[in-house]
Amino acid sequence: MIDEKSRAAAHATLTAYLNTQKMRRTPERFAILDKALDMPDHFTIDSLWEALTADNYLVSRATVYSTLKLLCESCIVRRHNFEGRVSCYEKAITPTVNHQHLICTECGKVREVRDPELMRLLESRRYSTFHPGYFAIYAYGICNRCAKRRRKKLP
After folding, report:
1. What is the DSSP letter of 42?
2. DSSP readout, 13-24?
3. CATH number of the domain at 96-155, please?
4. CATH number at 1-94
5. Which sign does the torsion angle of CA 51, 57, 58, 61 carry?
6. What is the Cα–Cα distance from 87 to 68, expressed in whole angstroms?
7. Rounded to two decimals, what is the model's pTM?
8. Which helix (DSSP H) or strand (DSSP E) does residue 149 occupy?
9. 20-62 pLDDT tens trace
10. CA–CA–CA angle 63, 66, 71 (5° rounding)
11. 1-94 and 96-155 share one fold
12. Cβ atoms within 10 A of the Cβ of 130, count?
């Protein structure tokens, strides 16, 4: 869940983006934004659409797709393409943006971790012709649960 200050900031960001793009401020876009802000850490378009329909908010999948694209373009939501999985999304409007993703190649579970030492190192890097806005680190391997399952299968 997201606090009301961050929710208001997300609404203001989307409003400003829509104004600069000369796009309409529709109730559907803001309903999708609010539901996306209420979603867990990582979510798919399908899980967002299902959450909307569970709340009896009837909106097409196409509208969800196009609105998520706008939310990504306005830097409210970030899209991830974890190897071998459907695209996942996460909120990017919250203060702690930079983190690492640990992805299990067996079960597909994604875990977020924050490594302050690694963050300090990456944030201290300077590039003469580039100004990074954020970073994403994906580490692929096997989670403890899958490793235990593997060990049990060995003779």
Report:
1. S
2. HHHHHHHHTT--
3. 3.30.1490.190
4. 1.10.10.10
5. negative
6. 11
7. 0.74
8. helix 144-153
9. 999 999 999 999 999 999 998 789 999 999 999 999 999 999 9
10. 115
11. no
12. 7
